[in-house]
Structures are given as C-alpha cells and as structure tokens.
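Quick entry between incubations.
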Amino acid sequence: MVEITYANAIKDAISEEMRKDDNVFMMGEDIGVYRGAFGVTGGMVEEFGEDRIMDTPISETAFVGAAIGAAVSGMRPIVEIMFSDFMSVCWDMILNQAPKMHYMFGGKVNVPMVLRTASGGGTGAAAQHSQSLEAMLCHIPGLKVIVPSTPYDAKGLLKSAIRDNNPVMFLEQKLLYRTKGMIPEEEYTIPIGVADVKREGKDCTIVTYGRMVHTCLNAAKQLEEENIDVEVIDLRTLLPMDKEAVLKSVRKTKHLIIVHEAVKTGGLGGEIAASVAETDVFNYLDAPIKRLASEDVPVPFCPILEKGILPDEDKIVKAVKEVLA
Amino acid sequence: MAVEVFMPKAGMDMKEGKIINWLVEVGDEVKEGDGILEIETDKVTMEVEAPADGTLLCKYFEDGATVPVVTVIGYIGEKGEKVPDGPSVASGEETKEKVKKEVEETVVKTETVVNTNRQKGDIPATPYAKKLARENNVDLSEVKATGIYGEIKARDILSYCEEIKKQNKGISPLAKRIAEANGVNIDGIEGSGYNGKVMKSDVLGAMSTPAAKAADVKEATAATDDSRKRVKLSGMRKVVAERMFKSHNEIPSVTHNMRADVTELVKLRKQVNESSDVKITLNDFVIKAVTKALQKYPNILVELDGDYLVYNTEVNMGMAVGMETGLIVPVIKNTDKMSITEIAKATKDLVYKANNNKLKPDDYKGSTFTISNLGMYEVESFNPIINQPNSGILGVCTIVDELVLKDGQVAVSKKMGLSFTYDHRVIDGRQASEFLMEIKHILQNPLSILI
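Done. Structure below.
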C-alpha cells in the first residue's frame, strides 16, 4: 500500500489507462502545461504529448461535443470541465447527445466518454463555482454518475469509468484533491454502482457520498464516545444507485439519515428516502427519515455564511440524537 | 307519502335503543308530536314522537326489540298507503332472530371500524413499532408511547411484550367489555393475542361457535332449575352500575359530616309557603344555599381533566332522583342566576320528567355539582358517590330534633345532617371544610337564601 493524494490517484488512474490503451486521451481547459485548474494533470503532457493531453479553447459545447464525436468514432475521450457549474454551457451535449445516442441509434453506437469535473463548495469560490449539481445528472437516464470520496475509490472507479462504454460523469470533490489515502501498489478497479460501508454500526444508518463522507465519519467518531454506533454508507456511484446496500443497512439499524452537500430540495436525499419508503424496509423504520443538506440558497461567498448553510459534524451529531430519541 | 318513524339517536354515543312499548297500534290516528312509543337507551327512557300527522301504517319491531339507531321502525301516512316490506312481514320469532343478528352485526361492524381506524391512523407509531405490534398481536391502543412526538416506538412494543410476558393470561379492555356485556366466560377462550392474550376477535369468535350456543342453552336451563329470579340489567341499571364503579374506583374520596341547625329554616319555609303559590321544599332551600356557598367557593366546581384542572364557572346543580328501577341525575342549570321560586319550579318539573321517563338528554347533562337528598328517609349520614366529572357531592340527611342549651335554657333544635364527599385529588380538607361550614352558616341564617 502507498499513500497518495486524491488528485494524484486520479492522475494515476488516467495515466495507467492511457499507457494501456492508445484510444484514451484527454481534452480540457489548461490541462497541459498549466497542469489543470486543480493541478490534477501535472506532468501528463510531458509524458503523453499534446495530441493526447489536449488543451482546448474556453468553449465547453465545442470540446464536449468533439469528445462525444470522438467516442462515437471509437476513441475513449476523457474531458475535464474546470468547474461542474460550467456544465450548464454544454448542457445539450450532456443532456441530449451523450446519453441518448446509444438508445436512439438502436444500440449501434457507444459513447465511451468520461466527463471529469470539480464539484462542491467549501472553498470560498461563491455561487457560480461551488455547486453540487449531481441530482440534475441523476435525472438523465443514459448517464452514469460517480462521486468518489477517497483516493482509493477515485482511482478504482475512474479506471472502471474509462473502460465503461457509456458516458460517465465523474464528479471530483474540490476540497478533497489534497487529502491523502492508502491505495494498493498493484492495479485494481472498483465496479460502478456498488456502495461502500465506510463504517459499520448498529444504531443508525447515515447514507452519504463525496466530501460529506468524511464529515459523517468524524461525527460518527464523536457519537461513538457516547455509545452511539453509527453506520456510514458511501454510495460512491449515484447512478445507478446501490439501493440494496441502503435497504440492508436500514433493515439492520431501523434509522436513516441522509447527508449531502447539494441543496435539499430536489436533492438525492429525497430519492434515497423514497427508495426506502417505497419498499418493505419502510416497516423497519423506527423514526422519521432525516435529510441533512445545504440550505436552498446560492452558495454564499462569505466563508462564514457558506459554512453556515452546509451540513457539518455538529448538525449530524444532533440529527442522529434526534432520530434515536 | 308515508313518513318514516325511526329509532332516534339521542346522544353522540348512542348505538341502539330498546323499544319498551308502542303507545299506539297500527291503524291508529296520530298527530305530529304525539308520543307513539317508549324507548330505552343506555342512559334514559324516553318517548318517540310522531314525525307527522297520519295513521300508523306499520311497526317493524315489536315491544322489547333492541334496534340500532336511525333504523326505520315504522311508517306514518295515509290509510292504505303502501309501505316497504320490512322485517315486520316475518313471523315474530324470525323477526327477533333477525333483529338480534342485525344488532350484533352492527355492533361488531362498529367495533371493527373503530379498531381498524385506531390501528391505522389515530395512534402514532413508527413503521417498525407497527410491524412488531402486528407480529406480536399487540393492540397499539394499549401501548404507552415514549417517542419525542408522542409516537409509539419499537422499544415501547418490546417493553409492552415484556410486561405481558410477566403477567399471566391477559385480556384486552375492549375484549373484556364485550365479554362482560355478552356474558361470555373468558376462561374457556384461547387468546390469539401476544402471549395468549384474549382479544376482541377471540370473544366474538367464542360467541359465534356452536359450543357457545350450547353453553347458552345450558345456562338458560340452569337458570330455569334455579328458583331465583334472574333479570337482565336494564340500560339504566347498567349505566348506573358502570358509573358508580368507575367513580368509586377512580376517585380517592373523603366525606365530611356536619350538622346544621335548621330550626329557623323550617320556620322560614313555613312562612314563605303561606304566601307563595309555588310550594317550596326544604330541598329547594338547600339547593339555593349550596349555590350561594359555591359562588363563594367556586374552586369546588373544579374538574380533573388529565393533567389539567378545569374550573367551571356555571353552577349547574345535579339532583339525584331515585326511582323504583334506578337512579338519574337531572340538572338544574345556572342556579346562581335563579330565584328560589324558579329553582322550585325547575326542580319540580325535572323530577316529574324523571319519574315519567320524559327527560331529554340535555336535561341530565352538564352538572358541575350534585346534591343527593335522602332526608326523607331518616338517613343520618352517608357518603355519596361523586357524580363524575364533578368533584363534589353533598348528601343531605334527615332532620332530627335535639335538645340544646340556648342562652342557658334547654331548647329544642332541629338539626340537619350534611355529608359532603369530595375528590381529594383536587380538593383538600381545608377547602372542603370551609365550603361545608359556609353551607351550614347559610342554612342557619336562612334569610340570606332569599336575598
């Protein structure tokens, strides 16, 4: 096992796949000599050259569209959109083109594209550079949506995404790029669509993903001191979602809290809650389901306000105690 | 067009009524408002009035039948008018059977509906608690809720099951009521509830099995062999029994006895009656005296409602009226706003109605205090049972001549016994004594009653 940052785990995943498969290449803004806005692609242009680490103009529709075309033609493009907020300017590509082609062309066409982008807040980057828009993507059948929380998950899932023959949205967490974790030295992949129990517990299930996984684990540690045993499930893939993992856990703990950084209204929390409520596992609930999410407001620039609208350890601890009261 | 005569619903909780006797025959002319039959509810007996002018065209039920409320029991219309074929076309015996069955079905139906509703909606419980309750045949209405929203949680079901396990064979309160009402012996019933607890459905099941019917016959035979007379409880007797038992069981009551010198009062009454058209009884004086005492000590008009004390502001005097077959407490409303003459009239009217089964439900509702007068029977003291939801009742006893020393001289004084029983949960001995002293004081200075 070696220790590695989240950013480098992503770079390693791409580099390994590029070394193995000449069809894999990257496109994006300033990913070459500038190393990418978050430094993920540092040193890659030196190794793979400008034909495979391709800097693009600031025109997301053009280069995402080009990537879809390349994918249809047999390449395996990886596109980086600097901030996930900018998906809006190439929304037609994400909504109407990439996920629809395989279906509308009767299965004759595949779109093996990965769209990587930096998602989430906590960086003081204000309302247009801090959003968590995964719920919008999960509303589009034909896409796969991944939000990794650790270097290990990021690397294993990204390699699977690159090898997948469908468009995969890979939402990296800005605040996690510099965090470190252990990964095996030998090659590994993680299957898409499988959740991970990050902490086993018997009293209450917390379902979460992305950066909030760590917040929840810290809260669980606090609660452990009070003899409250929380199970933390990291969904890892949001679409397709591993609902069975959630159901299994709730059947055990009888209590469910969902935590995410995205705004509450229309967020994945509602989907997860409904997935439990519409099955027989509903009968195992011994308290109302709780959702902890960002307030329904644009992300404030003021760091104090930004912190205020997001779920944090204290809010999670309080929620767990309420649910178990 | 023939007009329906139906079993009235003379109270929110009335489910059925018994036809005591028809006062008119089929073919008789009746006028709207005429009493055409007498019925008995679980609270009172009353007359059913003709809803229109016309001829009584049919009776669907005979005397003695018990009929669910708002069931059509007859028709009034023009002679010869056609009326729907009712149960009355069947022979007497069949009618009885049919009625009995219908009543039973109605009872069962209502019970089931009530129970399902409560199970499903009215009792907040978490899904898991409900699941455990289903699996263990626990009736949620019997489980204490500890959830922060007042909901029943899984732990509540589990501790309930623990509790039941500790007890021997149990029976749910509803099942118990049904069993008692129908004379079902629960010893022989296999309970389907948690830990063999006898539930409502078990009792109903036992009532419908052939064995139970055979047992009924056997019991009936046994009853015939027994020379003692057996009388089924009338509705009124049942209500009296239930209410007395409930009050006696729930209320830690204390009785204070005092004796008031009513020599002056007796004289005053004589004087008043010499000049009054309305005959005023001693009881009327007592009602007014107690009313005045209550106005001075309104805290006696308290009711206990769960975690709250509810203070009544109206003085509505319940007057226990003993009849040959039972007891009823008509209420004289707002005695604080009435003169003694008005009280005398109202009391006379209510007692007449009570003795002639003419009381309407409103006539015996809403009391805030009660008086039970046994003075005419040489009773010297007793402890009456509180008429819930009141918290106090005054027993009025007989008047006895006593020798007393008055200004150093032996004199004869008339002493009336007063027995005040109160609910010690809400009234303390000090207040009770002060209140009773006030009554005594007023009775001993009777002019104040008239003012």
